[in-house]
């Protein structure tokens, strides 16, 4: 039985000092490395079985920046889906409900469970959804995703404050939305461990300039995989793509 974390702990953002934000400037290097690698065209990696894979963007991002990952998944034999959550700058519970709609559609169209690949906060949302709806999810792969408390660069905290203000000013959500006092399904479930039927992996980089990499580790150390690169660049990192291809091939979506 997965244990729940209280709302005052699960999903909390905390400031982190000393994160090498300047390293994120090398994201372009990660992208260029991908475009010039053999793995980009599907060489040297196992190919898929046509099962559905949903890609989920990180904080402030939309599905658009995951186009490379989406089309690469198609090239190596999977049926990729965009998350259709919109921009990841809203109430996480609303985003999780939108993701569930996409997961349900992909599952119905393919008659099998769905795999989820989430970048940064997108991975946190994907993992939380898998814990709540394990019957719909076969696998979760998180790329630099905080699992419980997230220690982040102060610039991220400022952006989160701006999103919090916009969400609360819109009046569509309770005043506690996007705070540690929130008791929505996302906050009360974040940090829950999905059941063993959901295969999970946490991919992280110690040179992460956005999130303290230790926040991105699964409690089962055997499920953590370290790569070299930037936080933003894990969405374009050729080493990550090789690992993802292997992980997907090892699991059958039934």
Q: What would your notes on this structure say?
A:
The protein is an alpha/beta fold and 254 residues long. The protein has a single domain (13-249), classed as Alpha/Beta hydrolase fold, catalytic domain (Rossmann fold, 3-Layer(aba) Sandwich), CATH 3.40.50.1820. The chain contains 7 helices and 8 strands; from the N terminus they run E-H-E-H-E-H-E-H-E-E-H-H-E-E-H. Strands 3-2-4-5-7-8 form a 6-stranded parallel beta sheet, with helices on both faces. Strands 1-6 form a two-stranded parallel sheet. Strand 4 (114-119), helix 4 (121-132) and strand 5 (137-143) form a beta-alpha-beta unit. The relative contact order is 0.22.
Write the layout of secondary structure elements.
Layout: E1 13-15, H1 27-35, E2 52-56, H2 67-75, E3 79-82, H3 92-110, E4 114-119, H4 121-132, E5 137-143, E6 150-152, H5 154-170, H6 185-189, E7 199-204, E8 224-226, H7 238-249
Parallel strand pairs: 1-6, 2-3, 2-4, 4-5, 5-7, 7-8
What coarse outline follows from CA principal-axis ratios? globular
Say what oligomer this is: single chain
Rg value: 17 Å
CATH architecture descriptor name: 3-Layer(aba) Sandwich
Overall pLDDT confidence: 88
Give the uncertain stretches in residue-range form: 1-9
Strand/helix succession: EHEHEHEHEEHHEEH
What about the largest sheet? 6 strands, parallel
CATH topology tier name:
Rossmann fold
CATH class reads Alpha Beta
Distance between the termini: 22 Å
* Annotation field: number of helices: 7
């Amino acid at each position: 039985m997965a244990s729940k974390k209280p709302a005052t702990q699960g999903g909390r953002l905390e400031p982190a000092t000393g994160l090498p934000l300047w390293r994120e400037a090398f994201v372009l290097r990660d992208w260029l490395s991908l475009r010039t690698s053999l793995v980009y065209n599907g060489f040297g990696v196992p190919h898929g079985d046509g099962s559905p894979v949903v890609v989920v963007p990180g904080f402030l991002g939309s599905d658009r920046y995951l186009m490379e990952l989406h089309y690469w998944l198609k090239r190596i034999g999977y049926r990729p889906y965009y998350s259709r959550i919109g921009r990841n700058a809203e109430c996480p519970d609303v985003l999780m409900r939108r993701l569930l709609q996409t997961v349900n559609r992909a599952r119905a169209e393919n008659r099998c469970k769905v795999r989820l690949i989430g970048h940064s906060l997108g991975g946190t949302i994907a993992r939380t959804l898998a814990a709540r709806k394990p019957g719909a999810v076969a696998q979760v792969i998180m790329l630099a995703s905080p699992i419980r408390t997230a220690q982040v660069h102060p610039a991220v905290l400022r952006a989160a404050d701006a999103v919090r203000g916009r969400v609360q000013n819109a009046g569509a959500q309770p005043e506690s939305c996007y705070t540690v006092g929130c008791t929505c399904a996302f906050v009360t479930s974040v940090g829950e461990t999905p059941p063993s039927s959901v295969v999970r992996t946490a991919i992280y980089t110690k040179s992460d300039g956005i999130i303290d990499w230790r926040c991105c580790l699964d409690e089962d150390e055997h499920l953590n995989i370290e790569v070299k690169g930037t936080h933003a660049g894990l969405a374009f990192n050729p080493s990550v793509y090789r690992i993802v291809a292997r992980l997907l091939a090892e699991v059958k979506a039934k």
